[in-house]
Write a structure and sequence with these properties.
By secondary structure, the protein is mainly beta. It has one helix at 2-21, and strands at residues 31-34, 44-45, 71-75, 79-86, 93-101, 104-110, 122-129, 139-145, 150-156. Residues 5-22, 40-44 and 49-64 have low confidence and may be disordered.
Amino acid sequence: MNRRVTALAASAFVGIVMLTACAGPPSAADRSYRGMLSNPPVSLGAPKSAQPSAPPGASPAPRLTLGTPTAGWVDKPRRFGVPLWGSSSCPAIPTRIEATAPDRVTIRFEASAQNPCTADLAPTTHEFSVPAGAGTLPLTITLIYAEGEGTTTLVLE
């Protein structure tokens, strides 16, 4: 009887350790979900490099393609969302958000620890509150990818 209790306790401990090891880093997002922004964005931020030139007085329309990171207001100017494209079973995880200036926010993304991943391309949206120290519009959001994939800069008007 005593050996059964010890074996059961050891099995439970190993199971907890295995589940925790696969969990990956904690998310810095207030909310994450599969799909695009749940509320249609009031303002859509496009990568600075993707903004075409426009005639004087006209607002440039962002050139978006499948897989292009974007940002949109969920509750302007308090909350915004960032849909990213990648594997639906292993979406990137936002691990840190910080205000780097009154009009600038930086978000660091890391790869998911869930493996193996599906080879599909699907959006996962991460919603964030604008951190203390930021909030001046337009708000520049810099996405930093931990896997050496570079950075993306988005602007929300």
